[in-house]
Amino acid sequence: MSSLAAKQPLLTEGPIARTLLMFALPILGSTVLQSLNGSVNAMWIGHYLGEAALTAVSNANLILFLLLGAVFGLSMACTILIGQSLGARNMLEAKRVVGTGVTFFVSVSVVVAIAGFFTTPLMLNALNTPADAQAFAVPYLRIIFVAVPSMFFYNFLMMTLRGAGDSRTPFVFMALSVVLDIVFNPLLIFGVGPFPRLGIAGSATSTLIAQTFALFALLFTLYRRKHFLRLTRAELGYLKPDMEILRSLVFKGLPMGLQMIVISSSAMIMIHMVNNYGSKTTAAYGAATQLWAYVQMPAMAIGAAVSSMAAQNVGASLWDRVSRITKMGVLYNFLLSGLLIGVIYLFNHAALGLFLPNDAQALTLAQHLNGIAVWSFMFFGVTFVLFGVVRSTGAVIPPLVILFISMWLIRPPFALALAPQLGADSIWWSFPLGSLASMLMAMGYYKWGGWRRARMLATPIAKAGQQPPGEAAVAAPQASTTAQGVPASAE
C-alpha cells in the first residue's frame, strides 16, 4: 500500500492549518452554490408563476429536505469509513465500502423514487398543502422524485471523494450542476426557443437534467483519471454488500441524518411561536434567518472538513494530530463566522433591507432580534466542529442527544416560560441560550466522553499488511490489483 501514500495526498500529512483551510473552502463553496441555486429558482417561480407556485415549492422542499437529511447521514457514514480505511492504508476495505455504498444507494434511491412518485398527493395532503398550491406541487414533486436516484448517487460520490481527501472535484461538479440548473430554469419554465413551456414542472425538469448530467460527467471523469477508488471490471464483486459495512452505514448514518431533522423540526417549532406575534414579527424573523443561513455555512463546512480529516487520522492512529485538527477547526470557526457576524453588525440595516425594502416596522424588528441572536452562532459553530471530530470515530448518538436537549428541551421551553415577561424577546434570547448549552455539552463530551473508543465497524479496520483473521489468503492478490489503479493525482 505504499504506492497509495506516495501518489495520493492524504489528510494525515502536511501542515494542519493550511490543509484544513484548503479542504474546507471548496465545501463552503458547494454550500453557497446550493443556496444560491435555491434562491434563483425561487425567484423565477415566485416572480413569474405566483404565490401558489412558490407555496407549492416550499411544501415540496420540506419533503425533499427530510429525504436529503437522511441521505446526508448515510453519506457521512461512508465518508468516515473511507477516511478511516485510507488512513490505515487499507485499500481493500475502502473498495468494500465503495462497492457496498454503490449497491445500497442505488437500491434505496430507486425505491424512494418509485414510492414517492406514486404517493406524492398523499404526502402533500399530509402537509395540508393548500388546494391551489397542490396543482403546482404534484407535477413539481413527481419530477423531483424522478431526479432522486441522480441526487442520491451524486451525494454518495461527493461524500466518498471527501472521505478520500478530495473536496475540489465535488465543488467543480456542483458548480456545473448549479450553472446548468440556473440556465435551464427559465428556458423550460417559459418555453424559450426550442424548449417546451412546462411552467413549474420546467423548474423541476431543469434540476433533473442538471443533476443527471453532473453525475454522469463526474463518473466519466473519475474513470478517465483512473481514480484509485473506482471499481474496475475485475472488482465488480465488491458490489455484493458487505453486511458489516451495510449495518454501519445504516446504524451510524441514520443518527447523523436525524441531527438534521432535529434542527429543522426545532426551526418549525420556533416559526410557529414567532407567528403568534403577527406578520410583522414573522417577516422580521424570516429576513433575519436568511442572513443566519449564510452565517452558519462556514461552521458547517469546517465541521464536514474536520470530520474527513479526523477520520483519516483516526484510521492512522494519529491521535495527537486529531487534537490539533480540533483546535484549528475551532479557531477557523471563530475567524470565519466571527468575520461574517461582524459584517452583519456593521451593515445590519442594509443587509436586512435587501429582504424588507418597503417595511420600516419589520426592518426595525429584524435589526433588534439580529442584535440579540446572531452573535451566538459562533457558539453553535464550535458545536459543529466538535461533532465533526467525535463522529469521525463512530460516536454518533451523543451528538444527536446533545442537539435534541439544546434545541427541543432548552430553547422552546425557555421561550415559552419567559414569553409573559419578555414577549417576542424570549424567542430571540432562546437562541444564545440553546447555542451556549449545546457548546458546553459538546465540549464536555469531547473532553470526558468515550468517543475515542467508539468504532464504525464491529471489527476494527486493519492497517495495511494486517488483514483481519481468515482473510490473509485472499486479501493479498486483491490488494495488489487495486493498488495498480492509483493515479498520480485525484484532482
From TrEMBL:
A Pfam family it matches: MatE
Regarding the membrane, this protein is recorded as: Multi-pass membrane protein
Any GO molecular function: antiporter activity
Coiled-coil positions? none
Transmembrane spans: 20-40, 60-82, 102-124, 136-157, 169-192, 198-223, 249-271, 291-310, 330-352, 372-390, 397-415, 427-446
InterPro entries per record: MATE_fam, MdtK-like, Membrane_Transporter-Flippase
Tell me the segments the record calls region Disordered: 465-491
Is the Transmembrane helix keyword given for this protein?
yes
Q: Name one GO cellular component term.
A: plasma membrane
Q: Where in the cell is it found?
A: Cell inner membrane
User: Transmembrane as a keyword?
Assistant: yes
Q: Where is the composition biased (Low complexity)?
A: 472-484
Would you tell me the protein name for this molecule? Answer: Multidrug transporter MatE
